[in-house]
C-alpha cells in the first residue's frame, strides 16, 4: 500500500487554510475534469486523485487524522490478513481487506478513511443460523466497497469496470475477478448497488453473500448537491443586484442563463427548473444559483466620485 501525499496532490502547504484548499481543488478539478481534459483517460484518473485528496483535507476530522499519521503512517496501517483468514469489509472483518480496482479510491484511502463522509462505516448483515442437518453450512457474508461516481455519471448513468481480488485459503492473493457494474441514472450519495452472489463464498454448500458498492458522489468544482437538486454560486456586482441582469451559471450540461430580478439580495436562491439530477419518478431536480454580492477591492477616482454621489443622493438605509 502506497502512501498518498494529499497536500502534494493539491499543490498546497500543510499549513494551508480551508479556503486555500478549496481554491486549489476547484482550480485543479476544472483543469482535469474528464469532460474538458485533452486526454480523457489521464484526466479522469487525475480528477479522482484530486477528489480523494479534497475528500480528506476538506473534512476537519479526516484532515486531523491524516496529519497525525505523519512519517509513521505505516505503524497505524491495518495489519495484513492472517493466512486463511477471511478478507474484505464484511461482518467478520474490521476494515477493507479485499483489493478493489476501478472504484475511484486508492487502497490507502480505503484503509484509513473509507466508509462514508460522516466517518467509518462497514456493512453488517444478520448471520443466518447454521443448517441443523449441515452444522458446518454457513451463508457467505456480504462485502461492501465505496464507488466514486461523478455527477455526469449520476445524470446519464454509466457502466464501470470494477475488479476484485480475493484471497486463497493460504492467505495468498487469488485471481482477479472483473465486473461490469451498471450505474443507473439518478444515483444518490450513500445508495448501494448490489451484485448478488458476489460476496464471500458460503460454507458447506450454503449460498454466497452479496457485493455492495456504496455510491460516493465526486466533488464538482462548481456544483453542490442537495438530494436531486444542484447548487452553484452566482457572484454579482452591487449594481447588477440592484438593477437586475442576466447571468451565465455553470450546469451539468454546459452553462445556463439565469434572470436576476431587480433588488436581488445576497443569499437569494434563483431556481432553474429541471437542471438538477434525475429523480425516481423520471423527472429532474432543479439548479439553484445562490447569490453572492461582490464589491471591488480597488476603485478609480472617477468611480469613487460616483459612489460618493450615490451615497449623498440615495435614501436607502440598510440599518434603518
In a nutshell, what does this entry contain?
This protein has 320 residues and is of the alpha+beta class. Helices cover 25% and strands 24% of the residues.
Record the SSE blueprint.
Layout: H1 6-10, H2 18-32, H3 40-57, H4 60-69, E1 99-101, H5 107-113, E2 143-149, H6 151-156, E3 158-167, E4 173-183, E5 192-195, E6 211-217, E7 224-226, E8 229-236, H7 238-243, E9 245-251, E10 254-260, E11 269-272, E12 287-293, H8 301-313
Parallel strand pairs: 2-6, 8-12
Antiparallel strand pairs: 1-3, 3-4, 5-6, 7-8, 9-10, 11-12
Helix pairs in contact: 2-3
User: Strand order, biggest sheet?
Assistant: 7-8-12-11
Tell me the overall shape. elongated
Query: How many E strands?
Result: 12
Q: What is the alpha-carbon Rg in Å?
A: 25 Å
What is the end-to-end distance?
Answer: 62 Å
Q: Segments where pLDDT lies below 50 for 5+ residues? A: 80-96, 116-127
Q: Estimate the mean pLDDT confidence.
A: 84
The description of the largest β-sheet is: 4 strands, mixed
Strand content: 15-25%
Amino acid at each position: 500500500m502506497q502512501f498518498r501525499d494529499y497536500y502534494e496532490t493539491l499543490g498546497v502547504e500543510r499549513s494551508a487554510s480551508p479556503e486555500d484548499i478549496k481554491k486549489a481543488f476547484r482550480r485543479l478539478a476544472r483543469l482535469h475534469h474528464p469532460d474538458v481534459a485533452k486526454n480523457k483517460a489521464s484526466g479522469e484518473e487525475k480528477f479522482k486523485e484530486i477528489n480523494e485528496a479534497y475528500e480528506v483535507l476538506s473534512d476537519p476530522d479526516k484532515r486531523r487524522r491524516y496529519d497525525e499519521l505523519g512519517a509513521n503512517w505505516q505503524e497505524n496501517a491495518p495489519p495484513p490478513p492472517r493466512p486463511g483468514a477471511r478478507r474484505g469489509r464484511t461482518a467478520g472483518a474490521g476494515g477493507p481487506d479485499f483489493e478493489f480496482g476501478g472504484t475511484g479510491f486508492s487502497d490507502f484511502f480505503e484503509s484509513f478513511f473509507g466508509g462514508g463522509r460522516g466517518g467509518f462505516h462497514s456493512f453488517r448483515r444478520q448471520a443466518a443460523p447454521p443448517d441443523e442437518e449441515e452444522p458446518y453450512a454457513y451463508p457467505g457474508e456480504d462485502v461492501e466497497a465505496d464507488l466514486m461516481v461523478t455527477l455526469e455519471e449520476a445524470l446519464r448513468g454509466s457502466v464501470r469496470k470494477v475488479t476484485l481480488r480475493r484471497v486463497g485459503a493460504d492467505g495468498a492473493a487469488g485471481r482477479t475477478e472483473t465486473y461490469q457494474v451498471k450505474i443507473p441514472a439518478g444515483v444518490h450519495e450513500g445508495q448501494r448497488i448490489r451484485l448478488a452472489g458476489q460476496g464471500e463464498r458460503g460454507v458447506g454448500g450454503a449460498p454466497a453473500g452479496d457485493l455492495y458498492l456504496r455510491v460516493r458522489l465526486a466533488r464538482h468544482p462548481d456544483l453542490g448537491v442537495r438530494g436531486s437538486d444542484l447548487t452553484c454560486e452566482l457572484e454579482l456586482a452591487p449594481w447588477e443586484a440592484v438593477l437586475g441582469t442576466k447571468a451565465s451559471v455553470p450546469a451539468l450540461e454546459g452553462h445556463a442563463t439565469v434572470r436576476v430580478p431587480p433588488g436581488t439580495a445576497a443569499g437569494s436562491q434563483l431556481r432553474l427548473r429541471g437542471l438538477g439530477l434525475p429523480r425516481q419518478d423520471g423527472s429532474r431536480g432543479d439548479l439553484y444559483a445562490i447569490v453572492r454580492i461582490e464589491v471591488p477591492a480597488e476603485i478609480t477616482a472617477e468611480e469613487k466620485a460616483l459612489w460618493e454621489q450615490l451615497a449623498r443622493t440615495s435614501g436607502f438605509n440598510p440599518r434603518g
